[in-house]
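Re: beginner question about structure tokens

> Can someone show what the tokenized structure looks like for a real chain? I only ever see the sequence side.

Sure, here's an example I had lying around. Input first:
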Amino acid sequence: MNASSPFFHLLTVSSVVVALAPAAEAAGEWPNPRGPEFDGSVIAAGTFEADGVGLDLSWRVPIGSGYSGIAVADDRAVTMFAQGGSNWVAAFDTKKGKEVWRYKLEGVNKGHDGSDDGPLSSPVIGGDRVYALGASGEFVALRLTDGERVWKKQLEQDFGAKPPHFGFATTPLYEHDILVVQTSGSEGRGIVGLNPRTGETLWSHGDDSTDYQSPSVMTLAGERQVVAVSEKKITALSADGGDVLWVHDLAESDHASTATPTFVGEDRFLVAMGPGVAVFRVSKAESGYALEELYRSEVLGSETYAPPVYHDGYVYGFRGQVLSCMNVSNGKREWRSRPPGGDGLIVVDGHLVIFASKGFVVVADATPEGYEERARARALDGSSLSGPSFADDRVFVRNLDEMAAVLVTRGGATKPAVADAGDTEFNRFIARLKASDERQKMVDAFFAEHGRTPVVEGEWVNFVYRGDGSEVAIQGSMCDSEVADPMNHVEGTDLFYRSYRLEPGGRWEYHFQIDFEAWKLDPNNIRSVPAIEGEDAMSELVTPGYAVGAHLDAPQGPRGRVEDFTLTSKILGYDKKITVWLPPGYHADGPEYPLLIVNDGTAWLAKGNMVTSLDNLVGKSVAPLVAAFVEPSAQWWTEAGGSRGPGGGQGTIRYLRMQVEELVPALQERYRLIDDPASRAVMGNLFYAFNAAFAAVKYPGVFGKAGLQSVYMGLGAGDDLSAVFSQGAASSVIFYLDWNRYDVRNVDRGWDIAKDSRALKALLASGGYTVAGGEVLDSVGWGSWRNRTDEVLIALFPLQ
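And the corresponding structure tokens:
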């Protein structure tokens, strides 16, 4: 369950841009996602001066998918989203959340290659206008009062711009009555200054391409400068006339495609690039300006799209889901904290305001002394890659479904409740331990008594780790995917623990991370299973009532044999290793057999123990068959997934054609197989489960059966299957589909494979297909999928 793996990366949105906009004089405005001072901060006239700070949900309204931030001015909160097959700019009343107006943008901008539908740029408010850039390149000026269009430009037509892979995502900058836009245009129009009243071009410069960067404005060496990062350089322009002040060439390794420059005090600015951030200083020179790179740091920057914020000599931001504080003078870390998670943050009155994981708005002290939370309130069901905005004592947030406003109140803090293990012996032990003067001796006695961990008491499971380290976290199937929960440490001991209320009769996978470094198995748990990806393993907890299938035991009777051959695929353009399991007694002159094709075959052989299952089941409860295991590409995501996946799903189509036009004929020629779709099945899990489902509904004359486990239906998969159904797909195919009650899920990213699998079962049933299987009390991982191989095989090839 490595959060940096391609599996989780593909589930994550591939591009998000957080943008900048116009200056404002009061905390009643947040005219762009980086606030009135373009630095993600605001002085809000004592909003957080009271002894107690509270947060109350003011309103919450449905919108649609998109990554735009929220601009606020004149009692209007403006954002952009996709809804009803169109992209929109819309304004909402800041006090009530009522929609005031909406404007329809050109195009739809369907998500692809891991992204979701909707606009990528953020709206900007300047004076009485809203400026918005759609993903198709439509750039409009709208009246803030009623959304009426004032003027319109098209980046491709008017500036020779080439759309980035995910669509136009840069956000314009409004400064000194000039609109600055990184158009990625040609012929000296890479960055332009426009008259905000008319859209007329006032100046233009350069032709370096822009991906998902946005310009910023800051005072450096005594002059207001627009700083813009593009593919190959950083350019500074005068904020009023667009004169080039200085240019810094980037190395090819300085990957900064989503960078928004952040001012960090004393003529310095920060840019996210490569595996971290780089900090620069601008100074006056004899002729113009000099730019000096001060240092690079990996305290911040990687695995996040959220720009950091600066306050009183320190920079606060995320690295992945971990919040960190960096000393801007030297790039060293002051502290880091897993709570509160999330992606976006701002500074209000010297306090961090964070759109945290699971949809919470959190207020914490902006101090180098450590993370100290002051208040929190749930705004939405999940967070997003769009950061918060602040105006009129309200925090505005949005995700891919809804938008909300949270009111800051005074006098009563809303801090999170502290969960414990209820009235259990373990909880009583922890209470005695904390009160003891001989804590370590008590810990030693506890482990001598219990030996193996975790400690299970009914519905409560107590995960325990002991060892050196200042911080220990646990990640596993009891948590959201990509999320690690911090464990509690008992001072004066080497004991860390965290308790979960888990459904009895289930199975769970987990591992520990010590001091944010390598992941480790539970040293006091002898059970382990392979991780979903890679060579790592996960510790496994099997609670009372869970049955491990006997088909995974070492076979006692006759066994099949395994052989390999190489399929040279002209359709794919590369070779595929095919591993074939032949049943006991198979010979060239014998009977013909049914065929099972297994997607992601390498993993099913190594992690799914499928040869063992076949040896145990075939001839006893499963009919004799031939199984062909298909080796996945090293870049498996190019050949599995829906039409919004990498390459528009064409890799999936080629993969299916390879199976139908090349692999099945090759297997028919090599082995004695029944040439009948009713005797031919395909199976897979996760992304490859969709491939199996798609193959069966698209090619029912080839595959008459499909076995699916934990189907991922994102990236357009549901639309693809529905499109095949609309063409009159044959309903004679037999499906087996199961999933785990605690499958891959992340409320902040919108992943829920259990929900996807339920939706697929309903979709198949509506198409008249026979679907066996269902939800199982288990959790995501190879331990679950291989434990139900017997049910898959019996459903597809029952012994008559």
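Each token stands for a local structural state, so reading them left to right follows the chain. The radius of gyration is 29 Å.
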